[in-house]
Design brief:
The protein is mainly beta. It has two helices and 29 strands.
């Protein structure tokens, strides 16, 4: 194992490239960055000795680069290379991170600035991002907590789960589910053979699935477009939101608990003192399409 410790007050940018194992980051208050490069197996221990760890910058701007070399030569080509390398970093909160792995997972616990995370076949998770987020993996899952800026997440055969999205978001997966707890800006989500579910939506969306269900538990406002081939579409509209609906199913059922194509709020927002004018500010324009599924539009609290 190799251990490094740097004083990094001010802004920090961390770049990690590890093709042979996991990368685990933990952000916490302070100005110190501590790094552990841990090898397992004879091959991993050899790579630890060849790993490049460099710090550049001065005063209040710093960059740290961690580059774990890939195994080379005959042993790797014969698939008998034995070993892995794990990179662990404790760093100040608010740092920008750029991390890539091969088959290893990426976990980023704490609050970060901008984040760019990429894995070939590992899972990707991050707790909090104050800036923009770009997350990609070919065959792993993606999990995010709070993202303040723009967010983009892509995986080929894994699920995507997001807790709180403040900025415009684009989510793509080929064969997994997509779930979002709260979206305060527009969300574009697409999956081929999975479901898409948003618990609370405040500023519209565009959802697409080939053979999955689409659900908005509580669509507060914005333009929402939902389209699936062989799945159901379910949308909950809170009391106090005016809604115009254009819905169609070729072979499924259409049902709605509220009057469609209205131009006025269907209810008033209830406050401690009774009805308020908040209802006049909420507007939902809904388009729902499915070929062989059902469409349900319901009233929710």
């Amino acid at each position: 194992m190799s251990h490094y410790k740097f004083e990094t007050p001010g802004h920090l940018e961390l770049r990690v490239d590890n093709k042979t194992g996991d990368v685990r980051l933990r952000a916490r208050p302070g100005t110190t960055t501590e790094i552990e490069v841990i090898g397992t197996g004879s091959g991993g221990e050899e790579l630890v000795g060849n790993t490049r760890v460099e710090r550049s910058g001065e005063d209040l701007a710093h960059t740290i680069v961690i580059d774990v070399p890939s195994p080379r030569g005959l042993l790797r080509s014969l698939a008998i290379w034995n070993g892995s390398v794990t990179v662990r970093v404790e760093l100040p909160e608010g740092a920008d991170i750029d991390v890539s792995t091969g088959a290893g997972d990426i976990s980023a616990d704490g609050a970060f600035g901008h984040a760019r995370l990429a894995s070939a076949s590992g899972d990707v998770s991050v707790t909090s991002v104050d800036g923009d987020l770009h997350a990609n993996t070919a065959s792993g899952e993606i999990r995010t907590g709070s993202v303040q800026g723009r967010a983009e997440a892509n995986t080929a055969s894994g699920t995507i789960g997001c807790e709180l999205l403040h900025g415009p978001t684009r989510l793509r997966t080929a064969s997994g589910d997509i779930t979002v707890k709260t979206a305060r800006a527009h969300v574009s989500a697409q999956t081929a053979s999975g479901d898409v579910r948003i618990t609370e939506l405040f500023d519209g969306c565009q959802l697409q699935a080939a053979s999955g269900d689409l659900e908005l538990e509580r669509a507060v406002s914005g333009r929402a477009k939902l389209q699936t081939m062989s799945g159901d579409v379910t949308v909950g509209v809170p009391r106090g939101t005016a809604v115009a609906v254009d819905a169609e199913s070729l072979t499924g059922d259409l049902s709605s608990e509220i009057e469609l194509d209205t131009e006025r709020p269907l209810g008033e927002a209830e406050g401690p003192g009774g009805p308020t004018s908040e209802a006049d500010e909420r507007w939902l324009e809904l388009s729902a399409r499915t070929v062989s599924g059902d469409v349900l539009i319901k009233r929710v609290p």
